[in-house]
Amino acid sequence: MASAKIKKTEIAKLLSEWSQEFTVFVPSQDEGVAKWARWDGKEASFLAWYRNTVVPPKAIFFPPMESMFRFQKGGDGYQVELPPPAEKGCLIFGIRPCDARALSILDMTFKDTYEDPYYLTRRKNGVLVGLGCTSPYDSCFCTSLGGSPTDAASVDLMLTDIGGEFLVEAITDKGRELIARTSLARAATKADEARAKEAKELAGGRVIRKINTEAVTERLLAGFEDKDYWERVAAKCISCGICTFLCPTCYCFDISDELINNQGERFRSWDSCAFPIYTQMPVENPREEKWRRLRQKVCHKYEFYPMSFDVIACTGCGRCIRLCPVNWDITQVLANLPAEERVKLEK
Ligand code: SF4
Ligand code: SF4
């Protein structure tokens, strides 16, 4: 089947089939906050309100807090007990292209030098079913970073809204196997494919925010020491860390042990470079001032990460813009870099 289609009214049945094999996650409302939650086995009402989640799907593969292992001290030293493996892989239904792409960026981090077994096992056993955006936020700028609201590059299956149905494209072998096993999908017609093409073009045109990423690494490098600029950039930030916790490509974590008598547990939990004590060391703190921390956040994504992995670690999902309590805006920071003119002159 080149491409398939499925009725929107049959999505709940499809999720029910997939639940036999996977733990299915769908967008869900928790006291007004859109998050990912295990599908309740009932319906697919999220299709009516879903634009994107506040908490990105990285939280499924890299939870805000998780136990790494338990330990016990005995006569022969420490005994370590790893958490039991998950019984099923995760299937994320409706992941947006920017967030799927963010996972492919996180993969580079979690595979680099040291392979992180917690994250990588979940990724290996997971399936991503993408759902193209039809109404991007005005804070979204994925098209400036090589993405689009219907980009299928990082998913296994891609769904495009064509009215009462979704056009389904299998992108990977995992996706092909998944769609081949269901009787709910039917072959798409040329007219369905034409409708999907039109929907994709319309969606791409709805991303109105743009940034210039040309030579951005060089521009940041040239303006790195411009303290006045970074102080202005950081002035209104309250160091709450929301922009990093909810960024789908941020991955900093802290490790802590809980110990009672001779037994305990080691946890890891999300951390943020926005926090003043993030880089606290016994004799100094290289990022005590707020401007240095904001500079780190921007430069990590647009300067240091491309230098290491040849990719910008931002997908333009816009969360850090729409969720910041003081309206800090990374696109404005990049648009007003003081080195802009200097780099142009040097070229
Ligand atoms: S969300 Fe806004 S206020 Fe909070 S740390 Fe980020 S830039 Fe600062
Ligand atoms: S930096 Fe902002 S726009 Fe870029 S991926 Fe993170 S939250 Fe999204």
What is this structure, in a nutshell?
The protein has 347 residues and is an alpha+beta fold. It has helices spanning 11-19, 46-49, 58-61, 97-111, 117-125, 173-180, 190-205, 216-222, 227-234, 242-245, 290-309, 319-322, 330-335, 340-346; strands at residues 4-7, 22-30, 33-38, 65-74, 77-81, 89-95, 127-131, 157-161, 165-170, 186-187, 253-260, 263-270. The protein folds into two domains: 4-205, no CATH class; 216-346, no CATH class.
Describe this structure as you would to a colleague.
Strand 2 (22-30) and strand 3 (33-38) form a beta hairpin. The strands form two sheets. Strands 3-2-6-7-8-9-1-10 form an eight-stranded mixed beta sheet, sandwiched between helices. Strands 5-4-12-11 form a four-stranded antiparallel beta sheet, with no helix packed on it. It has two domains: 4-205, no CATH class; 216-346, no CATH class. The protein is an alpha+beta fold. Helix content is 35%, strand content 22%. The protein has helices at residues 11-19, 46-49, 58-61, 97-111, 117-125, 173-180, 190-205, 216-222, 227-234, 242-245, 290-309, 319-322, 330-335, 340-346, and strands spanning 4-7, 22-30, 33-38, 65-74, 77-81, 89-95, 127-131, 157-161, 165-170, 186-187, 253-260, 263-270. The structure holds iron/sulfur cluster (2 copies).
Which small molecules are bound?
iron/sulfur cluster
Largest sheet: 8 strands, mixed
How large a portion of the residues is in β-strands, by DSSP E? 15-25%
Low-confidence sequence ranges: 342-347
How large, in whole angstroms, is the Cα Rg? 22 Å
| Count of β-strands | 12
Number of domains: 2
Shape: globular
Fraction of residues in helix: 25-40%
The strand line-up of the biggest sheet is 3-2-6-7-8-9-1-10
Give the averaged pLDDT, no decimals.
94
